[in-house]
Amino acid sequence: MGSISRFHCDYIDINRDKDWDDLFATYWKSWKDPLQMTGLLTFPWLGEGNTREEESYEAAKQAYLELARQNPDQRWVRVLDHGLAGGPRVVGGGAFTIHREAAFKGGQAPSGPKSNTVDGDHAPPDIKLPGLGYPVNSERNILMRQLYSQMWSWRPRFMLNRPHMYGQALWVIPAYRHLGAAVEVMDYWLKEADALSLECFLEGSAIATPLYLKKGFVLLERPVMVFGHFPSNNGKETPSKEWDDLAIANGFAQPFPSSPVICDSTFSSAYHAPHLLLICDGIRTIMEFIDIAIIGGGPAGLTAAATLVRQLHTAVVFDNHKYRNAKSTHMHMVPTWDHKDPKEFRSAVRENILDRYSTVKFADVGVSKIEKKSDSHFHVVDDSGKEYNFRKVILAVGAADAFPDIDGYQEAWARRIFHCLFCFGYEDRGAKTTGVLVVPPIDPGMGLYMACNAAQLSDQVTLYTHGNDQFTNAITPLATAAKAAFKVDSRPIKRFVDNGSSLTIEFVDGSSKEETFLVHNPKTSVNGAFVEQLGLELSPTGDIKASGPFYQTSVRGVFSAGDAVNPYKAANAAISSGCNATVAAIAQLQAEKYGIPAML
């Protein structure tokens, strides 16, 4: 992964056109891609198919520049990437304002004029910021004003008139969000504040809390931003559909009180903290959506990650480190990885992705819950309780084996009992005798096919039906007619004994037989509770129902790959389906993003 040493942070000269243009371009991009709720409210027309994006961009750039010039205590910072062949590039920045003693009063915007007093002490301020291009008293206008009014009412209650440095904005363009650029801006700001012996204050979303706490901020409280019924719909108390879409659908669904006092004066004990951080539960919904949740870190999930990064999509790979082939020390049929350890493969793929790409994160934790909100919104909770919002989901969760109720089977699994003779068996070629266990889900037809695979590697093959008369009667004439030395043994099996290089089969009648290996594929089930949570259909074999080549499940927006969907469970099949499922998920994502008919 990229090192933060490649980044350099400094103040810009706001009077230099190029400095301002380069910095504001990253500010705009960080809000617009993906567009967040506050970006939608602050920058007009972006929510209208970007038809007036250029106009909105120029208006915003000029308005912010005027505010910066009006306030000599406002500092604008850029972070440069010096690790590029073409020279340094601005990839993010920040805006910080020094508030000297008695310079800040409640109800005043951080860098704009005082508010009107229309709605009590905490009225929406008459701010001179981009976004008021929305018609006066329109719901977008009111919601935006209320958003900033509430945010700006917190700081004076905490800081009173003490001098402090206020973090107004910190942003990084999407491709750099996991490379340390944001940390560079934060470090620069705190060094400046410490040099001036100033306290720091910022409001942040919950997604950034770990970074802020790591930098010495003290978490004060989690007040709720209040959005809900607003008497703006022609004087009616009930919100219009537009208001629903903007507020309630975005998570701001709490009743709106007559006097929205969201904080009280119970924070005096925190006034002596060096840096203060306010996290608002209600603003959590303003966090960016991540494009794709990849559940599972095996070959399918890793391939999904390696595929989507090529189109600059974002993802989190959730890996609980539970793998069906955990006992296997070798993998096969994957070019350049033949007969190598699957652990090394997983580690190398992850390292390769992180070294070259920046839009994927790996979370070494499982997922406990997935809830579909819409075709392009999935709420995910990991095993630690952390919450995420994704646009699409790829289930690469693998499968769990349900072994036959025969003593010793589980201990011999993947050691002397093989599920696939493309994955195993070659190393035992030339064996005198091998066996096939013909018990469900293996039926006589599949048992004979497995026997043919075994015959390629051994002189004699015995099909064991474990006392199943129906299977014995069905398979015996077929085995006799085959052009191979197939035998059928119907004796009930008592247990298996793994000898290391061979397997002993002990029968109920006290006799035994030694085989070099035994072939059998046990029943499997999809890992996790996601089939039930999402209402997914299953195939007759118990896999997630999702046909190739694109592996869209019965629930739109949810794709599956690997052992969870393939009846043929092997690394190469997982890799293929992981790639195809991701291409399909991206096709849906991009159709929604660019407003074209969906192919899938």
TrEMBL record:
GO biological process terms on file: cellular response to toxic substance
Positions of the FAD/NAD(P)-binding domain: 291-578
Keyword hit for Metal-binding: no
Taxonomy, superkingdom: Eukaryota
InterPro entries the record matches: Acyl_CoA_acyltransferase, FAD/NAD-bd_sf, FAD/NAD-binding_dom, Ferredoxin-NADP_redctase_2
Ranges that cross the membrane: none
Keyword vocabulary terms for this entry: Flavoprotein, Oxidoreductase
GO molecular function: oxidoreductase activity
Family annotation (Pfam families): Pyr_redox_2
Keyword Oxidoreductase in record: yes
Family label: Belongs to the class-II pyridine nucleotide-disulfide oxidoreductase family.
Name of the protein in question: FAD/NAD(P)-binding domain-containing protein
Protein's organism: Cytospora leucostoma
